[in-house]
Amino acid sequence: MKRILEVNGLSGGYVPEKPVIHDLNFHVASGEIVGLIGLNGAGKSTTIKHVLGLMEPMKGTAAIAGKTFREEPDEYRGCLSYIPETPVLYDELTLWEHLELTAMAYGLEEKTFLQRVRPLLEEFHMENKIKWFPSEFSKGMKQKVMILCALLVEPDLYVVDEPFVGLDPIGIQSFLDYMVRFRNNGAGILMSTHILSTAEKYCDRFLIMHNGHMVLKGTLKQLQEETGLADAGLDDIYLLAARGGKL
């Protein structure tokens, strides 16, 4: 499979000479969902910020479709969509205006925009709320707005950080159905989540972080072989890594 995201030797953090992630090497290929797993403080959010181009690496690179943020920032950002854990919305814009702004930022033609937006609104039960402002939304609805904007774009890479927070069960399933659909159509998806049962069911491979290091990576079968836990689920493997078990 073609590699969409490639991270090589990446170290970084918030204070010069004090990295919080260390020498990370991983990739996300076309047509796969990769789960980014770890305790709070393991380095997942810092890793995601580097992938998004929001932080400058101390060492190493992150490239999407062969492009780095430093060399081609506009093209780099145009290759990805991001769904954050905490929704970030404009108070003065309606739901519809958020969607229009997203379409404009990514250069979507009006015909394409309209073809994509209607099914999304219906799937997430937001078609009657297009004139609502963020102040009128519940937490789950705000998360749905972020999801709608990200799914509208249909990029090469989705970066998803704890997407299920605040969503109702139907919203969670709708989101997962779209992720599977886009994966099957060739997109790559990097998804950080603490819901290990969902990760095990939907992710093709896993990246397990601990104290800023990538301690395990691979398919569930590969993780079982590496840890010697032949019949273990992702939760048992994760707990071994998180508790400092021998790997």
UniProtKB/TrEMBL annotation:
Domain ABC transporter: residue ranges: 5-236
Keywords (A to Z) from UniProt: ATP-binding, Nucleotide-binding, Transport
Signal peptide: none
Classification via CDD domains: ABC_DR_subfamily_A
Gene3D superfamilies: P-loop containing nucleotide triphosphate hydrolases
Record GO terms (molecular function): ATP binding; ATP hydrolysis activity
Residues passing through the membrane, by range: none
PANTHER family (alphabetical): ABC TRANSPORTER ATP-BINDING PROTEIN ALBC-RELATED, ABC-TYPE TRANSPORTER ATP-BINDING PROTEIN ECSA
The protein, known as: Multidrug ABC transporter ATP-binding protein
